[in-house]
Automatic annotation (TrEMBL):
<dbReference type="InterPro" id="IPR029787">
    <property type="entry name" value="Nucleotide_cyclase"/>
</dbReference>
<keyword id="KW-1133">Transmembrane helix</keyword>
<protein>
    <recommendedName>
        <fullName>diguanylate cyclase</fullName>
        <ecNumber>2.7.7.65</ecNumber>
    </recommendedName>
</protein>
<dbReference type="GO" id="GO:0052621">
    <property type="term" value="F:diguanylate cyclase activity"/>
</dbReference>
<keyword id="KW-0472">Membrane</keyword>
<dbReference type="GO" id="GO:0043709">
    <property type="term" value="P:cell adhesion involved in single-species biofilm formation"/>
</dbReference>
<dbReference type="GO" id="GO:1902201">
    <property type="term" value="P:negative regulation of bacterial-type flagellum-dependent cell motility"/>
</dbReference>
<dbReference type="InterPro" id="IPR000160">
    <property type="entry name" value="GGDEF_dom"/>
</dbReference>
<dbReference type="InterPro" id="IPR043128">
    <property type="entry name" value="Rev_trsase/Diguanyl_cyclase"/>
</dbReference>
<feature type="transmembrane region" description="Helical">
    <location>
        <begin position="230"/>
        <end position="251"/>
    </location>
</feature>
<keyword id="KW-0812">Transmembrane</keyword>
<dbReference type="Pfam" id="PF00990">
    <property type="entry name" value="GGDEF"/>
</dbReference>
<feature type="domain" description="GGDEF">
    <location>
        <begin position="288"/>
        <end position="417"/>
    </location>
</feature>
<dbReference type="GO" id="GO:0005886">
    <property type="term" value="C:plasma membrane"/>
</dbReference>
<dbReference type="InterPro" id="IPR050469">
    <property type="entry name" value="Diguanylate_Cyclase"/>
</dbReference>
Length: 421
């Protein structure tokens, strides 16, 4: 009982610990480091800054700074000419040999560190467009960059500051590009699985005049472990520990049951079967002819009285051992109570049982007993048929034992059916 209540309190402690650990795990999730994909802003080979001249306009863009030590800076003189005047900075991400873009579909945010100054004459709130251009053979081809999908976000730099985290799921595919392409609906959503180019462009309704840009960092980020995997891991830990606990509890119960069952059928002093144990063992045997031998140590009270209970116990243990060694594997040897012992020998008639009894007595004479005692026993033997119950046979053996005691002890008496019936 003690160990059961102790294990329950251990379990409760474990549950509290796990609950706290889970809360802590949930709390630290936002603090976990992000996986980053930073775009190289110093590789001028892969950066193109241009005005809208290619579209027939007269806006002009020029690089101010593109060295390794200083942030990429450029200016744009936005002029009327083209219907939708613009300046753009394209940063190529694709591998030039394989023409493969970068798969950024698992990334969640785009960190942008920049600086922007609108024309001094501007009287409106200026915007900037950011395009993440994706290639997919289903709608684009590598020879025509205008066919790359325009995942677009247009924002007001004045309201967001110079370091912003843009969630990728707020990007939209440019409406004008969709109208031009006439794509089926399933291809109309944003895509980042093969990003070829990232583009920073003046706003749709940007004012004419000089716009100044400086780009310090462009980094795609995603959690090291996705939120769903993280929560799933917590759930898996709970499920695994719950299952382990149930498994462990079942094993412990099984072991305890075995232990208590063992205790219930065994005499603790001699470790022979007790009365209950005999009944259990008998259930495992087919009804068979057998002989019952009932042993009672002679004048055992004297042993206790003279040498004390400790020595008495040692004598009982020594006798139990002797029975264990003398009896066959298939026999049942048990302590019936006090200084009385029972042996049941299957398929054994009274004459053979007498020989067993004689063997025990013989062994007793050869044993060195505690305190050099001379321990003897009286034995009642009864032969039982397959139809006779154990209780009846034991009663017969008890009658024979009584006779052995009466006739002076230290002897074997076999119950005689004919004379006693
Ligand atoms: N040490 C010890 N003594 C026990 C145990 N169980 C019973 N006894 C003692 O065994 C003694 C049995 O005494 P009696 O029934 O008078 O029998 P006896 O002295 O052997 O005399 P007979 O059987 O007539 O020869 C008692 O003193 C019990 O206290 C036990 O587990 N340990």
């Amino acid at each position: 009982m003690l160990s059961v209540s102790a294990s329950i309190s251990r379990f409760e402690k474990l549950v509290v610990f796990l609950a706290l650990a889970s809360i802590a795990a949930l709390a630290i999730y936002p603090l976990l480091p992000n996986q980053r994909f930073s775009i190289d802003l110093h590789n001028t080979q892969r950066i193109a800054i241009e005005g809208d001249g290619v579209s027939g306009g007269s806006s002009v863009a020029s690089v101010i700074e593109s060295s390794n030590s200083k942030p990429l800076s450029w200016r744009c003189e936005l002029k009327s000419g083209y219907q939708f005047p613009y300046c753009s900075t394209k940063i190529h991400l694709f591998d030039e040999a394989s023409m493969q873009g970068v798969d950024l579909s698992s990334y969640k945010e785009l960190l942008l560190r920049y600086s922007y100054r609108p024309p001094t004459t501007s009287s409106q709130t200026e915007t900037i467009r950011l395009y993440v251009r994706n290639h997919n053979p289903a709608y684009s081809n590598l020879d025509d960059f205008s066919s790359m999908k325009y995942n677009e976000l247009e924002f007001q730099p004045s309201t967001l500051g110079d370091e912003i985290n843009l969630p990728l799921d707020v990007f939209k595919v440019s409406h004008w590009w969709l109208l031009e392409r006439n794509l089926p609906i399933e291809l109309s959503r944003i895509e980042f699985n093969q990003v070829m180019v990232v583009e920073l462009v003046t706003g749709t309704y940007a004012s004419f005049g000089e716009h100044f840009f400086q780009l310090k960092e462009l980094t795609f980020t995603k959690p090291l472990v996705s939120a769903s995997n993280y929560y799933l891991a917590i759930v898996i830990v709970w499920v695994a520990l719950s299952l382990s606990f149930v498994f462990w509890k079942a094993l412990t119960l099984k072991r305890d049951n075995r232990k208590y069952h063992h205790l219930a059928i065994q005499d603790p002093l001699t470790e022979l079967l007790n009365r209950h144990g005999i009944q259990e063992k008998l259930k495992q045997h087919q009804r068979a002819a057998a002989s019952v031998l009932l042993f009672d140590l002679d004048h055992f009270k004297k042993v206790n009285d003279v040498y004390g209970h400790g020595v008495g116990d040692e004598v009982l243990k020594a006798f139990a051992n002797l029975l264990r060694l003398t009896c066959r594997q298939n026999d049942i040897a048990a302590r019936w109570g006090g200084e009385e012992f029972v042996v049941i020998c299957f398929d054994t008639d009274a004459q053979q049982a007498k020989i067993v009894a004689a063997k025990v007595r013989q062994a007793m004479t050869g044993l060195v007993w505690p305190q050099q005692l001379n321990v003897t026993t009286s034995i009642g033997v009864a032969e039982a048929g397959a139809d006779d119950s154990f209780e009846v046979a034991l009663n017969w053996a008890d009658i024979a034992l009584y006779q052995a005691k009466e006739q002076g002890r230290d002897q074997v008496i076999v119950y005689q059916h004919a004379t006693n019936q």
